[in-house]
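I'll show a record.
***
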Amino acid sequence: MKARLPLEGIRVLEYAQYVAGPFAGMLLADLGADVIKIEPPTGDAWRHYEPFAEGESRYFYALNRNKRSVVLDLKDEEGIRASTSLIRTADVVLHNVPPDRARRFALDRESVRDANPAAVWCCVSALGSDGPEAELTAFDLVAQALSGLLLADARGSDSVPERAGGIAMADFTAGLLAAIAVLSGLLGRGCDGAGGFEISLLGAALAVQAQRFVSVEALDGAPRGGRHRRALATSEDLEQLARARRAHDELEPYYRAYLAADGFLVLACLHEGQRVAACAVLGLEDPWAGNPQAPPANAAERARRLALVAEFERRIATETADHWVQRFRAAGVPSSEVRLLEELFEHDQATANGLVHTLEHGVGPVKLLGSLFKIDGLVTPPRRAIPALGEHTDEVIRELER
Protein backbone atom coordinates (compact mmCIF):
# COMPACT_ATOMS: atom_id res chain seq x y z
CA MET A 1 0.00 0.00 0.00
CA LYS A 2 1.43 3.37 -1.03
CA ALA A 3 2.06 5.73 1.88
CA ARG A 4 0.12 8.98 1.81
CA LEU A 5 2.40 11.98 1.53
CA PRO A 6 1.83 14.76 4.07
CA LEU A 7 0.83 17.45 1.55
CA GLU A 8 -1.42 15.32 -0.65
CA GLY A 9 -4.58 17.27 -1.42
CA ILE A 10 -2.79 20.63 -1.12
CA ARG A 11 -2.73 22.72 -4.30
CA VAL A 12 0.16 25.13 -4.76
CA LEU A 13 0.27 27.69 -7.56
CA GLU A 14 3.87 28.58 -8.33
CA TYR A 15 4.38 31.83 -10.25
CA ALA A 16 8.15 31.68 -10.08
CA GLN A 17 11.19 31.57 -12.32
CA TYR A 18 14.90 30.98 -11.88
CA VAL A 19 15.91 29.43 -8.51
CA ALA A 20 14.46 30.42 -5.13
CA GLY A 21 10.74 30.16 -5.88
CA PRO A 22 11.00 27.00 -8.01
CA PHE A 23 13.19 25.33 -5.35
CA ALA A 24 10.53 26.04 -2.71
CA GLY A 25 7.85 24.70 -5.04
CA MET A 26 9.81 21.52 -5.70
CA LEU A 27 10.25 20.87 -1.97
CA LEU A 28 6.50 21.21 -1.46
CA ALA A 29 5.89 18.92 -4.45
CA ASP A 30 8.25 16.33 -2.98
CA LEU A 31 6.06 16.39 0.14
CA GLY A 32 3.02 15.54 -1.96
CA ALA A 33 1.54 18.90 -2.94
CA ASP A 34 -0.03 19.34 -6.37
CA VAL A 35 2.27 22.10 -7.59
CA ILE A 36 1.02 23.86 -10.70
CA LYS A 37 3.77 25.94 -12.25
CA ILE A 38 2.31 28.97 -14.04
CA GLU A 39 4.65 29.98 -16.86
CA PRO A 40 4.54 32.79 -19.42
CA PRO A 41 4.23 31.79 -23.08
CA THR A 42 8.03 31.82 -23.38
CA GLY A 43 8.43 29.64 -20.28
CA ASP A 44 10.50 29.97 -17.13
CA ALA A 45 13.68 31.80 -18.17
CA TRP A 46 15.70 28.95 -16.64
CA ARG A 47 14.47 26.66 -19.45
CA HIS A 48 16.61 28.69 -21.84
CA TYR A 49 19.81 29.03 -19.80
CA GLU A 50 22.51 26.93 -21.50
CA PRO A 51 19.86 24.72 -23.16
CA PHE A 52 20.76 21.40 -24.77
CA ALA A 53 17.40 21.27 -26.60
CA GLU A 54 14.53 23.71 -27.09
CA GLY A 55 13.22 24.60 -23.63
CA GLU A 56 15.40 21.95 -21.95
CA SER A 57 18.27 22.78 -19.59
CA ARG A 58 19.99 21.20 -16.62
CA TYR A 59 19.16 24.27 -14.56
CA PHE A 60 15.43 23.87 -15.15
CA TYR A 61 15.55 20.12 -14.60
CA ALA A 62 17.18 20.58 -11.20
CA LEU A 63 14.26 22.55 -9.73
CA ASN A 64 11.05 21.49 -11.41
CA ARG A 65 10.25 17.80 -11.00
CA ASN A 66 6.88 16.68 -9.62
CA LYS A 67 5.12 19.76 -11.05
CA ARG A 68 2.50 20.43 -13.68
CA SER A 69 3.13 23.23 -16.18
CA VAL A 70 0.39 25.65 -17.25
CA VAL A 71 0.96 28.53 -19.65
CA LEU A 72 -0.88 31.79 -18.92
CA ASP A 73 -0.13 35.20 -20.38
CA LEU A 74 -0.56 37.53 -17.42
CA LYS A 75 0.03 40.55 -19.62
CA ASP A 76 -3.55 40.36 -20.88
CA GLU A 77 -6.86 40.43 -19.03
CA GLU A 78 -7.88 36.93 -20.10
CA GLY A 79 -4.72 35.48 -18.58
CA ILE A 80 -5.27 37.35 -15.32
CA ARG A 81 -8.90 36.16 -15.16
CA ALA A 82 -7.78 32.55 -15.65
CA SER A 83 -5.11 33.03 -13.01
CA THR A 84 -7.63 34.43 -10.53
CA SER A 85 -9.92 31.46 -11.18
CA LEU A 86 -7.03 29.14 -10.35
CA ILE A 87 -6.19 31.13 -7.22
CA ARG A 88 -9.73 30.52 -5.96
CA THR A 89 -8.98 26.77 -5.99
CA ALA A 90 -5.53 27.01 -4.39
CA ASP A 91 -4.27 26.40 -0.89
CA VAL A 92 -1.00 28.23 -1.55
CA VAL A 93 0.11 31.01 -3.89
CA LEU A 94 3.90 31.21 -4.20
CA HIS A 95 5.60 33.82 -6.38
CA ASN A 96 8.83 35.71 -6.94
CA VAL A 97 7.39 38.41 -9.19
CA PRO A 98 8.74 41.95 -8.58
CA PRO A 99 6.32 44.17 -6.60
CA ASP A 100 5.13 46.39 -9.45
CA ARG A 101 4.36 43.44 -11.72
CA ALA A 102 2.81 41.46 -8.86
CA ARG A 103 0.26 44.25 -8.47
CA ARG A 104 -0.43 44.35 -12.22
CA PHE A 105 -0.81 40.56 -12.35
CA ALA A 106 -3.09 40.47 -9.26
CA LEU A 107 -0.52 38.41 -7.36
CA ASP A 108 0.09 40.87 -4.52
CA ARG A 109 -1.12 39.88 -1.07
CA GLU A 110 -4.27 42.01 -1.16
CA SER A 111 -5.40 40.74 -4.57
CA VAL A 112 -4.82 37.10 -3.61
CA ARG A 113 -6.63 37.58 -0.30
CA ASP A 114 -9.60 39.15 -2.12
CA ALA A 115 -9.78 36.15 -4.46
CA ASN A 116 -9.18 33.50 -1.80
CA PRO A 117 -8.99 34.60 1.85
CA ALA A 118 -7.99 31.07 2.95
CA ALA A 119 -4.95 30.81 0.67
CA VAL A 120 -1.44 30.98 2.10
CA TRP A 121 0.46 33.68 0.22
CA CYS A 122 4.26 33.58 0.02
CA CYS A 123 6.44 36.01 -1.90
CA VAL A 124 10.17 35.61 -2.45
CA SER A 125 11.44 39.13 -3.05
CA ALA A 126 14.90 40.29 -3.98
CA LEU A 127 15.82 42.85 -1.34
CA GLY A 128 12.60 43.07 0.69
CA SER A 129 9.36 44.93 -0.01
CA ASP A 130 10.23 48.04 2.03
CA GLY A 131 13.08 50.51 1.89
CA PRO A 132 14.72 52.52 -0.90
CA GLU A 133 15.73 49.47 -2.95
CA ALA A 134 12.49 47.51 -2.68
CA GLU A 135 11.56 47.90 -6.34
CA LEU A 136 14.97 47.02 -7.74
CA THR A 137 15.54 43.88 -9.78
CA ALA A 138 18.19 41.74 -8.13
CA PHE A 139 19.45 38.17 -8.30
CA ASP A 140 21.57 35.98 -6.04
CA LEU A 141 24.85 37.70 -6.90
CA VAL A 142 23.43 41.12 -6.03
CA ALA A 143 22.11 39.82 -2.70
CA GLN A 144 25.48 38.25 -1.94
CA ALA A 145 27.27 41.50 -2.75
CA LEU A 146 24.90 43.70 -0.74
CA SER A 147 24.90 41.37 2.28
CA GLY A 148 28.66 40.94 2.60
CA LEU A 149 28.42 37.26 1.69
CA LEU A 150 30.51 37.78 -1.42
CA LEU A 151 33.41 38.79 0.81
CA ALA A 152 32.77 36.23 3.55
CA ASP A 153 35.87 34.29 2.54
CA ALA A 154 37.40 36.94 0.28
CA ARG A 155 37.52 34.49 -2.61
CA GLY A 156 38.29 35.76 -6.06
CA SER A 157 40.18 35.43 -9.31
CA ASP A 158 42.18 38.28 -10.81
CA SER A 159 41.46 40.09 -7.53
CA VAL A 160 37.72 40.29 -8.22
CA PRO A 161 35.26 38.87 -5.64
CA GLU A 162 33.33 35.77 -6.69
CA ARG A 163 30.76 33.40 -5.19
CA ALA A 164 32.17 30.43 -3.31
CA GLY A 165 31.98 27.54 -5.74
CA GLY A 166 29.67 29.56 -7.96
CA ILE A 167 26.79 28.46 -5.70
CA ALA A 168 23.58 30.51 -5.51
CA MET A 169 23.56 30.37 -1.72
CA ALA A 170 21.07 33.20 -1.18
CA ASP A 171 18.68 31.69 -3.72
CA PHE A 172 18.66 28.19 -2.25
CA THR A 173 18.46 29.44 1.34
CA ALA A 174 15.53 31.67 0.40
CA GLY A 175 13.81 28.67 -1.20
CA LEU A 176 14.18 26.66 2.01
CA LEU A 177 12.85 29.56 4.08
CA ALA A 178 9.90 29.97 1.72
CA ALA A 179 8.98 26.29 2.04
CA ILE A 180 9.13 26.59 5.84
CA ALA A 181 6.93 29.68 5.69
CA VAL A 182 4.34 27.92 3.53
CA LEU A 183 4.23 24.92 5.85
CA SER A 184 3.74 27.16 8.88
CA GLY A 185 1.01 29.02 7.02
CA LEU A 186 -0.81 25.79 6.23
CA LEU A 187 -0.49 24.74 9.87
CA GLY A 188 -1.82 28.08 11.09
CA ARG A 189 -4.66 28.54 8.62
CA GLY A 190 -7.61 30.12 10.34
CA CYS A 191 -5.43 32.27 12.58
CA ASP A 192 -5.73 35.98 11.81
CA GLY A 193 -2.76 37.23 9.82
CA ALA A 194 -1.07 33.83 9.59
CA GLY A 195 -1.36 33.41 5.84
CA GLY A 196 0.95 36.01 4.33
CA PHE A 197 4.73 35.58 4.19
CA GLU A 198 7.62 37.35 2.54
CA ILE A 199 11.15 36.00 2.20
CA SER A 200 13.97 38.04 0.67
CA LEU A 201 17.24 37.03 -0.94
CA LEU A 202 18.91 39.70 1.17
CA GLY A 203 17.57 38.18 4.38
CA ALA A 204 18.58 34.70 3.23
CA ALA A 205 22.12 35.88 2.47
CA LEU A 206 22.35 37.34 5.96
CA ALA A 207 20.86 34.20 7.52
CA VAL A 208 23.76 32.02 6.39
CA GLN A 209 26.11 34.53 8.04
CA ALA A 210 24.20 34.71 11.33
CA GLN A 211 27.23 33.55 13.35
CA ARG A 212 29.25 36.47 12.02
CA PHE A 213 26.42 39.01 11.93
CA VAL A 214 26.67 39.89 15.62
CA SER A 215 28.11 43.16 16.88
CA VAL A 216 28.86 43.53 20.59
CA GLU A 217 29.48 47.22 21.10
CA ALA A 218 31.54 46.70 24.25
CA LEU A 219 33.93 44.52 22.22
CA ASP A 220 33.64 45.89 18.70
CA GLY A 221 33.02 49.59 19.22
CA ALA A 222 30.62 51.50 16.99
CA PRO A 223 29.37 49.88 13.74
CA ARG A 224 32.19 50.01 11.25
CA GLY A 225 30.54 49.64 7.85
CA GLY A 226 31.54 53.10 6.69
CA ARG A 227 35.21 52.52 7.38
CA HIS A 228 35.11 49.16 5.62
CA ARG A 229 33.40 50.69 2.59
CA ARG A 230 36.16 53.26 2.24
CA ALA A 231 38.90 50.73 2.93
CA LEU A 232 37.75 47.97 0.56
CA ALA A 233 37.97 49.92 -2.66
CA THR A 234 40.67 48.20 -4.72
CA SER A 235 41.84 44.75 -5.73
CA GLU A 236 44.79 45.20 -3.36
CA ASP A 237 42.31 45.67 -0.50
CA LEU A 238 40.62 42.39 -1.45
CA GLU A 239 43.96 40.60 -1.48
CA GLN A 240 44.78 42.01 1.95
CA LEU A 241 41.42 40.84 3.32
CA ALA A 242 41.95 37.41 1.77
CA ARG A 243 45.40 37.14 3.37
CA ALA A 244 43.93 38.03 6.76
CA ARG A 245 41.20 35.40 6.40
CA ARG A 246 43.70 32.77 5.23
CA ALA A 247 46.00 33.60 8.11
CA HIS A 248 43.16 32.85 10.52
CA ASP A 249 42.41 29.53 8.79
CA GLU A 250 46.08 28.57 8.77
CA LEU A 251 46.07 28.81 12.56
CA GLU A 252 43.30 26.23 12.88
CA PRO A 253 44.85 22.74 12.91
CA TYR A 254 41.75 20.77 13.85
CA TYR A 255 39.10 22.06 11.43
CA ARG A 256 40.53 22.23 7.94
CA ALA A 257 41.58 20.34 4.82
CA TYR A 258 44.90 18.53 4.42
CA LEU A 259 46.68 17.06 1.40
CA ALA A 260 47.35 13.33 1.68
CA ALA A 261 49.51 11.30 -0.71
CA ASP A 262 46.74 11.04 -3.32
CA GLY A 263 44.23 13.78 -2.59
CA PHE A 264 42.60 15.97 0.01
CA LEU A 265 40.78 15.07 3.21
CA VAL A 266 39.19 17.12 5.97
CA LEU A 267 39.29 16.96 9.75
CA ALA A 268 36.41 18.46 11.73
CA CYS A 269 37.16 18.36 15.46
CA LEU A 270 34.91 20.54 17.60
CA HIS A 271 35.60 19.30 21.12
CA GLU A 272 38.53 18.18 23.21
CA GLY A 273 37.94 14.44 22.88
CA GLN A 274 38.08 14.65 19.09
CA ARG A 275 41.20 16.81 19.18
CA VAL A 276 43.00 14.36 21.45
CA ALA A 277 41.91 11.40 19.29
CA ALA A 278 43.05 13.09 16.05
CA CYS A 279 46.47 13.72 17.53
CA ALA A 280 46.71 10.13 18.77
CA VAL A 281 45.99 8.78 15.27
CA LEU A 282 48.95 10.80 14.02
CA GLY A 283 51.20 9.80 16.90
CA LEU A 284 51.03 13.23 18.52
CA GLU A 285 49.75 14.78 21.72
CA ASP A 286 47.21 17.59 21.83
CA PRO A 287 49.09 20.60 23.27
CA TRP A 288 45.84 21.85 24.78
CA ALA A 289 44.64 18.60 26.36
CA GLY A 290 42.66 19.37 29.48
CA ASN A 291 41.33 22.60 27.98
CA PRO A 292 37.77 22.04 26.72
CA GLN A 293 37.89 25.22 24.66
CA ALA A 294 39.26 25.42 21.13
CA PRO A 295 43.01 26.10 20.85
CA PRO A 296 43.60 29.66 22.06
CA ALA A 297 43.81 32.24 19.28
CA ASN A 298 46.06 34.65 21.13
CA ALA A 299 49.44 35.73 19.81
CA ALA A 300 51.31 33.74 22.43
CA GLU A 301 49.91 30.48 21.04
CA ARG A 302 50.43 31.38 17.38
CA ALA A 303 53.75 29.55 17.04
CA ARG A 304 52.41 26.34 18.62
CA ARG A 305 49.35 26.39 16.37
CA LEU A 306 51.44 26.88 13.24
CA ALA A 307 53.85 24.16 14.31
CA LEU A 308 50.99 21.71 14.85
CA VAL A 309 49.49 22.50 11.44
CA ALA A 310 52.87 21.85 9.82
CA GLU A 311 53.26 18.54 11.67
CA PHE A 312 49.75 17.43 10.67
CA GLU A 313 50.58 18.30 7.05
CA ARG A 314 53.85 16.38 7.12
CA ARG A 315 52.38 13.19 8.61
CA ILE A 316 49.16 13.15 6.59
CA ALA A 317 51.13 13.53 3.33
CA THR A 318 52.80 10.14 3.91
CA GLU A 319 49.67 8.00 3.30
CA THR A 320 46.57 8.01 1.11
CA ALA A 321 43.47 9.98 2.00
CA ASP A 322 41.47 6.76 2.41
CA HIS A 323 44.07 5.39 4.84
CA TRP A 324 43.77 8.40 7.12
CA VAL A 325 40.00 8.79 6.82
CA GLN A 326 39.49 5.19 7.90
CA ARG A 327 41.83 5.63 10.87
CA PHE A 328 40.32 8.93 11.95
CA ARG A 329 36.78 7.56 11.72
CA ALA A 330 37.73 4.45 13.71
CA ALA A 331 38.95 6.81 16.44
CA GLY A 332 35.68 8.78 16.41
CA VAL A 333 37.12 11.76 14.57
CA PRO A 334 34.83 13.32 11.91
CA SER A 335 36.69 13.06 8.61
CA SER A 336 36.07 12.64 4.89
CA GLU A 337 37.85 12.60 1.59
CA VAL A 338 37.18 15.71 -0.48
CA ARG A 339 35.07 14.69 -3.47
CA LEU A 340 33.90 16.27 -6.69
CA LEU A 341 30.16 16.86 -6.92
CA GLU A 342 29.94 14.55 -9.95
CA GLU A 343 31.20 11.63 -7.87
CA LEU A 344 28.04 11.74 -5.76
CA PHE A 345 25.92 10.32 -8.61
CA GLU A 346 27.47 6.92 -7.87
CA HIS A 347 28.41 7.34 -4.21
CA ASP A 348 27.01 4.59 -1.98
CA GLN A 349 26.02 6.93 0.85
CA ALA A 350 24.16 9.33 -1.41
CA THR A 351 22.35 6.61 -3.37
CA ALA A 352 21.45 4.58 -0.25
CA ASN A 353 19.64 7.61 1.18
CA GLY A 354 17.70 8.39 -1.99
CA LEU A 355 19.63 11.57 -2.69
CA VAL A 356 20.10 10.58 -6.33
CA HIS A 357 17.05 9.87 -8.49
CA THR A 358 16.87 8.82 -12.11
CA LEU A 359 13.97 10.13 -14.16
CA GLU A 360 12.97 8.87 -17.58
CA HIS A 361 12.66 11.72 -20.03
CA GLY A 362 12.37 12.25 -23.75
CA VAL A 363 16.07 13.06 -23.86
CA GLY A 364 16.89 9.82 -22.02
CA PRO A 365 17.55 9.00 -18.35
CA VAL A 366 18.19 12.07 -16.19
CA LYS A 367 19.97 11.79 -12.84
CA LEU A 368 19.37 14.57 -10.36
CA LEU A 369 18.98 15.39 -6.67
CA GLY A 370 16.39 13.17 -5.04
CA SER A 371 13.85 14.16 -2.43
CA LEU A 372 15.42 15.59 0.70
CA PHE A 373 12.65 14.09 2.81
CA LYS A 374 12.59 10.52 4.08
CA ILE A 375 9.01 9.91 5.26
CA ASP A 376 8.23 7.07 7.69
CA GLY A 377 11.60 5.55 6.83
CA LEU A 378 10.93 5.55 3.10
CA VAL A 379 12.44 7.57 0.29
CA THR A 380 9.72 8.99 -1.92
CA PRO A 381 10.54 8.67 -5.64
CA PRO A 382 9.42 11.45 -7.98
CA ARG A 383 5.77 11.17 -9.01
CA ARG A 384 6.19 13.29 -12.13
CA ALA A 385 9.05 13.97 -14.51
CA ILE A 386 10.10 17.48 -15.51
CA PRO A 387 7.16 19.07 -17.34
CA ALA A 388 7.33 20.36 -20.88
CA LEU A 389 6.24 23.97 -21.27
CA GLY A 390 2.44 24.10 -21.00
CA GLU A 391 2.17 20.31 -20.85
CA HIS A 392 -0.72 20.41 -18.38
CA THR A 393 -2.56 23.58 -19.44
CA ASP A 394 -5.56 21.78 -20.94
CA GLU A 395 -5.69 19.28 -18.06
CA VAL A 396 -5.82 22.00 -15.40
CA ILE A 397 -8.35 24.11 -17.31
CA ARG A 398 -10.62 21.06 -17.57
CA GLU A 399 -10.35 20.65 -13.79
CA LEU A 400 -11.59 24.22 -13.38
CA GLU A 401 -14.64 23.44 -15.50
CA ARG A 402 -15.79 20.47 -13.42
The chain has two domains: 11-208+348-401, 264-337.
